[in-house]
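Lab notebook page, bench 4
Experiment: in silico fold of construct C2
Operator: M.H.
Input chain length: 171 residues
Purpose: comparison with the prior construct
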Amino acid sequence: MPLKGTLGALAVLAIAGAALANGLPGQRLEQVVGNMIVDVGTDQTTSPVAGSTVEFDFALLDSSSRDPLPVTNVGVNIAHNGRMMVNCDLLVDPQMTFIYYTFPEPGTYTLKVEFFDTRRASMQQKLASASFPITIGSQRLTRFAYIAGFVGTFVAGLAAGYWGKRPRASA
């Protein structure tokens, strides 16, 4: 491999590593709360669908430097149609907080995240809180879109093949 190709490949890997350094590589949900950012990452690169497992990671960042702030635990609540689906407290030791959840049905869910530092005085333990709406799609619609895309591509390929092979008029 020539030197230029090697340097290019290394540059791509370095950029990808920097882009993915802040948790999971999928969609991110962020909300500014005072001088902090509540950061929720997912492993989903497209809209999640019912029945599929979604991985979430949680971080509390300084809004000016985007450095992680120290927390001792994270409260996670997921609600759907006024009913609590998940209510858990994640201990942050080491500084990683992940949760996997399979959304049982399509619809709009609410993800509420609260960050705490129990080493502080009792009145200052909650550092930040944020809520995010999450829309979960239907698998049937997703399957239909894939099948329609496949059929459309197939028909376009047949039309292009016919167009390319048809006899041309001589001038």
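Observations: The chain has one domain: 18-138. Residues 155 and 161 are 10 Å apart (CA to CA).
Next step: discuss at group meeting.
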